[in-house]
Amino acid sequence: MLILLHLTFMIAAALCLLAGVGIAMFGRKKRTWLKMHKNLNTAGFSLLAAGGVAVFAHVTASGGDHLAAPHAWFGASAALLAALTFFLGYYSLRAANKQAVRAVHRWSGRLALTAILGTLALGLSMIGIL
Ligand code: HEM
Ligand code: HEM
User: Fold this and answer.
1) Where do the domains of the chain lie?
2) How many CB atoms lie within 10 A of CB 82?
3) Which of 4, 7, 9, 10 to mutate to test the pocket of ligand 1 (most atoms within 8 A of CB)?
4) pTM for the full model?
5) CA-55 nearest atom, ligand 1
6) Beta-carbon neighbour count of residue 17 at 10 Å?
7) How many helices (H) and strands (E) does the chain have?
8) What is the CATH number of domain 2-126?
9) Which of 76, 93, 105, 125 could tie 130 with a disulfide, CB 3.0–4.6 Å?
10) CA-45 nearest atom, ligand 2
11) CB of 19 shorter than 6 A to ligand 2
12) 43-99 pLDDT tens trace
């Protein structure tokens, strides 16, 4: 049951983050791009955190070892990168050195999304879907 929640939350998270980053990369002509980027990525990051809690509870309840396989290592790194990016996104709105913070946010964001999609592909191949 918890693993189904993990699967569902993570697919929904990846879709939100993909749309949110897509808007920042290709939709900046729209006046509302930042609002959409912020909302979609806030939703995506919350779903990612919920999916993380679900799988942590699943592994604990089934008595398995945490962080025991490549999917788990990639997933944990992806989640940490996403957390850093999320923090930097909000921080960049008020930081004194906006330009530097945004440059790091752009690169950590691109890396986080790549790691999330890679982890998703590994997860789906673990259950025979990919
Ligand atoms: C954005 C995508 C995903 C992320 C960031 C992610 C992250 C993680 C993390 C961090 C763990 C390790 C948990 C721990 O050791 O306590 C894990 C385990 C796992 N994930 Fe994912 N995951 C993702 C997508 C998926 C998908 C699509 C599936 C397919 C069902 C999946 C299936 C699993 C399974 C089976 C485990 C191992 C549970 C166990 O050891 O019993 N994951 N995931
Ligand atoms: C985990 C969530 C997030 C991810 C993965 C992410 C990712 C990205 C990426 C990849 C870019 C650069 C797009 C490009 O031009 O190639 C970007 C730009 C930007 N993001 Fe985010 N973002 C996230 C959350 C946020 C949040 C919550 C905010 C604000 C509250 C924010 C504010 C910005 C701003 C202001 C830019 C423009 C930076 C610039 O070009 O100078 N982001 N984001």
Assistant:
1) 2-126
2) 25
3) 10
4) 0.93
5) 13
6) 25
7) 4, 0
8) 1.20.120.1770
9) 125
10) 1
11) no
12) 999 999 999 999 999 999 999 999 999 999 999 999 999 999 999 999 999 999 999
